[in-house]
Design goal:
The structure is a homodimer of 338-residue chains. Chain A has 338 residues and is an alpha+beta fold. Chain A is 46% helix and 19% strand. Chain A starts with a helix and ends with a helix. Chains A and B meet through β5, β6, β7, α10 and α11 of A and β5, β6, β7, α10 and α11 of B. Chain A binds a DNA duplex (30 and 30 nucleotides) through α3.
Amino acid sequence: MSLAPRQKVILKVIIDRYILDVVPVASKTIADSCGLKISPATIRNEVASLEVEGYITHPHHSAGSIPTDEAYRHYARLVAERSQLSSAEQLLLYQLLRSTGGEIEQWLKLAATILSRFVHNLAVVTLPKMAQCRLKHLDLISLHDFAALVVLVLYEANIKKQVISFNRRVSQDDLTRVANRINAAYIGKTSIEVTTEKLENSLLEKEVTKSIIDILDSENKSKYGRPYIEGLYQMLSQPEFSNSSTIVRVLELMDREDWLQSISCPNLNSERIEIIIGQENTEEALQDLSLVIRQYGIPGSATGIIGVLGPKRMDYAKTIPSVNYLSSVLSKSITKYI
Amino acid sequence: MSLAPRQKVILKVIIDRYILDVVPVASKTIADSCGLKISPATIRNEVASLEVEGYITHPHHSAGSIPTDEAYRHYARLVAERSQLSSAEQLLLYQLLRSTGGEIEQWLKLAATILSRFVHNLAVVTLPKMAQCRLKHLDLISLHDFAALVVLVLYEANIKKQVISFNRRVSQDDLTRVANRINAAYIGKTSIEVTTEKLENSLLEKEVTKSIIDILDSENKSKYGRPYIEGLYQMLSQPEFSNSSTIVRVLELMDREDWLQSISCPNLNSERIEIIIGQENTEEALQDLSLVIRQYGIPGSATGIIGVLGPKRMDYAKTIPSVNYLSSVLSKSITKYI
DNA sequence: AATTAGCAGACTGGAGAGAAGAGTGCTAAT
DNA sequence: ATTAGCACTCTTCTCTCCAGTCTGCTAATT
């Protein structure tokens, strides 16, 4: 990017103002608030070249400037390096996050809620997911003569259950016996390991093993853990969504179970925050929006994602450090649960 | 209600047309489609008295008729008694519901999705909730030296978990011993019974018991089980929500965790469907909407609710029997899981 | 060469007027 | 009791006009 220093200043002013007011920024406004002692006419000259470079457009001939996707990208890169939350803000978020004692699920949900209220957009936090999930403990509990509940405790304090039914009477004693055998044999094993080392001395053991593999496999299959999505209302209150058809378009996407999966984040890792702006989104309904997203957790072991979805004109200077900060808090605290 | 037969016919035509077209119904339209051989002028006379009786209004002086809340109530009462799904529709819903094998959670979620797509509005299904939940099985699993996972299996195949941490080392052996003692003592007990018959011979037992009571109490506290809410998109695509501020008002309500709790259904029981129309809603954001809701499950034991939320002008003739039918299917199938 | 003042021109957005259309309420006739 | 007819009301669409905003260009200035 070969922008003169002054052009950079002007571009930043345009983006800042536009983020604030959601109105095309006039050259006079820029002149007033850029701090440089130059007239609107000069600004207009510079703006003209910014337009040639592809950083701004005008909604119509004699309107002020609005940033292009490219400008947001440039801006977000800048902000990602520099912006930090004030320690007061950090403390606030930290204190809010402490307000629930309970389970990781509630806690992550709370994190999403706090984040969404803080940045006034939609926030997503997923449960951390193990690279390979391993069996920690199995319980078999008889529901009635012909059905039992399989309770699987996985590492990361994750619990799965499944009802299996039988074509014959199966007693709690039978179940307990099998549970003990399986616990002894499969503790700490992954789905693949269970598959290769099947015990299968009895029909019941076979059935239970199948159920275990089922559960482990379906857990491994999904790209992310269960998502907590909060603040739809926050996002849709933004002026970008004053037209109800844009709202409906987004809701249509979110109605799909798998919309999070379809977000393309080729090299998402916990080292770096990803910022996907406008047209970069593969999903059409998101092409007027931006996504700020980061991995948290223990790389290679248990990782989840935390992110914010909002209009392209979101407050990156607040959102980016917020996601960064919360992802680091989550990463630190997650060890408690694993 | 003292409406002449012909007035009833006219009122029904008005409601039917308005539900279909969402446009005030003109006297000529009524005359054309009511089947009676009377002129628009006569219709207008009748409509005038319907207005006096409070069943219709006009958005402005020279506009057609639109039904009042009262008219919808009248109509819904009628429909509730008469309408039934065709057996083809019943079969369709039934088949769709069979398409997931798994757990009750997925199954209820599927039910909500199917219902919402069928009636094109928002559907809610809650997990069934026991009148008093009872302990079925306890597991204590060590996470590390200073923390353990409490896994509580309740009746109705409901599993709860909680992490408890210790200020000293606690081994899996310690945990197993306590779990065995507690299982022996508390199986089938409610929170109150556990409270009155405390064992508490050791600190660990005390801590675990507290956790159990915590979990049982918080489970008892809520009015309904966890809700599955599907089809927001379906509802908000309706023409009533073409104004984005009405959308935002509803979303604001739904952002609140407890909005379902606040719905006043004084005498909700599984015998009868409840239809709450417009102003009858205590929640202000719902006063332009209607709620069709019914209990399902086993009265006095495990009950949940199933319902549809949509504009007052919803298709009651389809919605009411759909909710009725699905509630009966859920009631029948729920026994499998308990 | 860079900057600026000044001005013409482009476009928006709102107000106002007018016409067409839809539909009622009333009256008088059937 | 019903209906035809008509005056009147209200909406909605289109068109025009006008004020306001802001740019792009040109020519003057530093």
